[in-house]
Amino acid sequence: MKKILLFFLSLILTVSILGKNVKYERVASINLSSDEMLTALLPENRIVGLSGKINEDKDMSNISDIAKKYPKIEKNLETLLDLNPDLVVGADWIDSNIIQSIKDAGIEVFIYKTPKSYAEQKEVLLSLGKVLDEEDKSQEIVKNMDERLGAVQEKIKALSLKDKPKIMLYTPYETTSDEKTSFNDIVNLIGGINPVVGSGVNSFEKISKEKVIELDPDVIIVPVWTSEINNEEFFKYLLDDPSFQDIKAIKNKQVYGIPYKKISPSSQYMIGGIEEMARRVYHLEDLKW
Predict the structure, then answer these.
(1) Reading across the β-sheet that carries 167-169, which strands appear in turn?
(2) Residue 52 · residue 63 · CB < 8 Å
(3) Left (φ > 0), alpha (ψ -120 to 50) or beta: where does 64 sit?
(4) How many Å apart are CA 49 and CA 82, to the nearest integer?
(5) Smallest Cα–Cα separation from 70: which of 92, 46, 104?
(6) Smallest Cα–Cα separation from 62: which of 271, 287, 286, 221?
(7) Residue 145: in which H helix or E strand, if any?
(8) Which of 7, 39, 194, 269 has its Cβ near the most Cβ atoms within 10 Å?
């Protein structure tokens, strides 16, 4: 049954390569999450280029040191064509005009649906492994993810907590994450509750101060991006505002800054985000992160 599911997932995800028994030797990536997956699945000599300088940003990228080895495409079609890839990998949010231009140049394209859950992330990795003729490697990565998740969940279970903590994302842009996000799935996987779910607030709206007070989270997670955001200013706003002082997370000093790369990776590094969240929320200092 699993093989059948993977086959149909490949039908959905593959734009132009289905049915071709080809080993791609010159692979390029056009977004950060595929950068992270390709560098784990392929040897260096099979990757001709990665997305752009964002993959060298230590708050955004889990491969900031590895990425320095590769040319950067930076959404430039001419640069991409100069690299002469035989396969380009990207996410479904990439502009369709860019994808069509790549196809028109005679280059094969693999587009995957951006995962919004841990299960979806694993399926993307397995499908990509199949396309790249690296099925054993993708299965090894997924097995490692599952083993680490199992270890996290066992440690949380051993705490025998009476109540599930309410864990809320609150960004310096004053936005949050609803049920349609990987953050929400991470919260569920570590035994928490996302208070935003069912509140009428979605991920693309600014959440009001009054709503944050009403939701009264036990833990607030703040994504950190030091090169773009004044994090100190936002933490000061959160911790010093008189109207926030009765929120449990503020009162109990359960406000944690975590790099964006840990909070919302669409790659195998999602498991690192799960470990980091569990470590912060439950004070499990011996977890990997």
Answers:
(1) 167-169, 219-224, 255-259
(2) no
(3) alpha
(4) 10
(5) 46
(6) 271
(7) helix 135-158
(8) 194
d(CA 171, CA 156): 26
DSSP 68: G
pLDDT at position 227 is 74
Q: Is 285 exposed, middle or buried (0-12, 13-18, 19+ CB in 10 A)?
A: exposed
**Euclidean distance between the first and final Cα of the chain, in Å?**
34
Alpha-carbon distance of 217 to 117, in angstroms, equals 22
Per-residue DSSP letters for 146-182?
A: HHHHHHHHHHHHHT--SS--BEEE--TTS----TTSH
Q: Determine the Cα–Cα distance for residues 175 and 80; give it in Å rounded to an integer.
A: 34
- The CA distance from 240 to 250, in Å, is 9
The burial of 218, by beta-carbon neighbours within 10 Å (0-12 exposed, 13-18 middle, 19 or more buried), is given as buried
For residue 180, give both structure tokens: 């349609």
Q: In 3D, which of 103, 114, 138, 137 has the Cα closest to residue 6?
A: 138
Phi and psi at 89, nearest 5°, equal -115, 135
Distance CA 46, CA 187 (A): 36
> Do 170 and 176 contact (CB within 8 A), yes or no?
yes
> What is the spatial distance between Cα 15 and Cα 32, in angstroms, rounded to a whole number?
19
Is the CB of residue 142 less than 8 Å from the CB of residue 163? no
Mean pLDDT, each 10-residue run in order, the chain (289 residues): 45 45 89 97 97 92 95 95 97 94 96 96 97 98 98 95 96 92 95 95 89 97 84 89 96 94 90 95 72
